[in-house]
Each structure stands twice: as C-alpha cells, then as structure tokens.
C-alpha cells in the first residue's frame, strides 16, 4: 500500500458547519443519489482536484433532535460505510477541537495528529484496559507538517464536550494536545481496513483554560472552520500523487 | 411493520463468553463464509428454531489487544452491518450488565429493557444535550415480560465499566435500572433502520453496591451468562411468529 500514489482522499467531518466551508473551497458537489446508502444519515460530496478524487463525508443530522450526529458512534459507522464504498487511499478526519495550552495550543491553530486514543473508556480488567484507551499512531507525515507549519500532537477522543476528573486524568495519561469527539472511533475503523489515517483539528477552545468549552466552542466555531478551510487545499495539494511514505 | 409476524430475530452480543452459551443452547452454526464481511471483526451464527431464523452476532476480538470488542462503537458498527445483511424482524441486545439494587436488581436477574439512554455523552449545548443522552423507548413487550417473569427497567450505556460522578448523576437522571456498554449505540442503529429493538440484560454486579464492578463482573460473568442461556429459548419461542404488537 505504501508504494501506491494517493489518488483518492476521504475527508470525514462530523458537523455541517465544519463541512460546508470545505465543500465550497474544494468546489465539491453533493452526491445524488447518495454514495452512502440510507438509512445511514451521512451526506457525501465529491469532486476532482489536484488530479485526485476528493470525497467529503459528514455524519448527517439526528432524526430526533435535529443536530449533527457528533461523537464516536456515528463517526465510526459513517467511516465504515464510507471507506467500504469509496475505497480511499487516505482518510483524514477534519474538524474543530479543544486544545491544551500546556502543549502549545491556541485558538485557531490547526493540529496534525500524531496518535489517537480514547479518554472515556475505562475498563479496569487486564487487556480490556489497553483496548479501552486503544491508542494507535497516525500515519507519519513529517513533510506535510513542515510544509504547512502545522502544530502536532496526540488527539484524544471522548463522547462529552466537557470532561470529568477521570477524563482529565486519562487525557493527561494520553499526553493529549487535542481533545475532540470522533477521531479515535474513526482510527479503529481505519485500522480494520488497513487504510492510512490522518487528522487535522482546528482549536475552538482551550481545555486547560478558564472558560466553559461550550461558550468558547460556539464563539470560535466559525473562525476555526475558516482555519480548516484555509488549510484543506494546501494539504490535499501536498498529498495528491505522493506515496504514504512521502508524507 | 407491526402487523408482520416475526420470522427472523437478530441477537447481538458483545463478548464471546456471553455468546457461546446462547449458540450452544440454540444449536446454531458459525457462518462460513462469514455473513458479516471482513474487515468487520463480527462473528455470526445461524440456525432455525421455533419455526424462525435466528442469528447470533458477536462483536469479535480486538486485533491489537485480543479482548472482545466491547463498547458502543463496535456494537453500533456490528449492528449496522448485521441489520443491513440479515434484515431481521426484531433485534435483541443480549448480555451482562450492572444493576441498581435501588431499582430492584440482584445478581443473576434478567432485565427486559423499557428504554435506552447514554450516561457518558455530556454536550451542554441546546439540542446537542438531548442528542447526547439520546433516550428512546424499547419496543413495548408487556406480554413477554409477564410470561417470563422478567424484571424491567431503563438500560443506560457508557463506554466505561466503572462510573465517574458525572456518569452517576446521568445514570440517575436516566432512571437507570441497568448499566452496560452497548445497548444505546445499537438503539441508534435500530432507530435508523426502523427495526423493533429489545434488550435482555443479566446482572453481574451491583452498581450501587460496595464492591468494584470489575471484581463482581469477573466473579459472576459465568453465572450471568448461564442465566441468559436459560432465558433465551423461552424468549425466542415466545416471540416466534407473533407480531410486534403481540409482544
């Protein structure tokens, strides 16, 4: 796989407000009929750019509550169905996240993931404990990081926007620079399919700061989505046609 | 859907130790080639009994850590693929769980779910808060409950075997009688597919008791799995050929 040049990239996004700026800047079109068959709520967009096929797939909306299907469960289901259908050479989870200022994060930064882990799966039985945390490396992309001057760090996932004391302790054990709600679930699916996986996370709120995450998140969602919009084209242009080892 | 008689039942189980006693008592055979295509780690078993088709599907083992793929992410992915492939008339999540003695639970009891909710998805933004908890009713099955003298209550799911203070508060807000790690994720998938969904949960440990859950869980896993083995045949015999409204 690593000698093959990258000809298709699947970009997975949880929220519509994160996805649409990417769809616009990449000039993608919504797939009609849908590429991810119902009843999956996922919505996909496709186009050709930089000589490769680009798909952006978002998790769609909750039928009962009308909000975006955030969290690891919809992320993993969408990822499974999208990888199966689209057979990408590279998967990138793109979205907003909390950042740790102790690891150099500031609002608006875009981080490249070095590894993925969970901070809300505590199973204190030997074997299950490591499975719960899961921790797995991202595909190394030192040239991409340098070319785009991205910060880098561990992305830790959990299903809450806030954190409990136990989450906090595991975030630190995971050496998390970035806290979000999807990437670890997707990394499990990417590992099953043996498909290279990266993540780009734009910081909306400071986890080890003074303010409640929901306040900062809503305040900075738009500007963080714009930061992702600025970075997505250079990232895709960089990876297009390269082998995984060249990243 | 509700006028159709039940001709196929999909039983979803997280752990091999929970699944094999069911497979044995129902005299099912492992599907070769697998019905759930790789790279999904799920393992499926099929047979005919009580005049209907019965499939038991477990989540399979973690490639990295060798343990069963427990938690909401593998449960939802397995459920999605299994429902898509097998098109069951009824889905039942069967497994072991913690029980609240304050809601009448004792070790070895088998509970029938009345509703499903999450206790570890805190998203304090309007709309997302309700999405996070998710709460959805199980298909009503008063005749089944009475015929088998099952206890009943809300099944609340989270990705940890233990609980944080925040989990505890949400377990109480959910009025949980049963705490486990899969059913809410499956209930999301069942809702997407509009397929009737039940759960049977056998109590291995008392959540509001004095002992660490991992101790009681390991001590009582075998006897709780036996309790499920005793109840599964009468449950399937009861539902076979009935309509959903007759349950």
From TrEMBL, chains A, B:
SUPFAM superfamilies (UniProt xref): Purine and uridine phosphorylases (SSF53167)
Domain Nucleoside phosphorylase: 9-236
Lineage: Eukaryota, Viridiplantae, Chlorophyta, core chlorophytes, Trebouxiophyceae
A Pfam family assignment: PNP_UDP_1
Record's signal peptide: none
Gene3D superfamilies referenced in this protein's UniProt entry, alphabetically: Nucleoside phosphorylase domain
Protein name: Nucleoside phosphorylase domain-containing protein
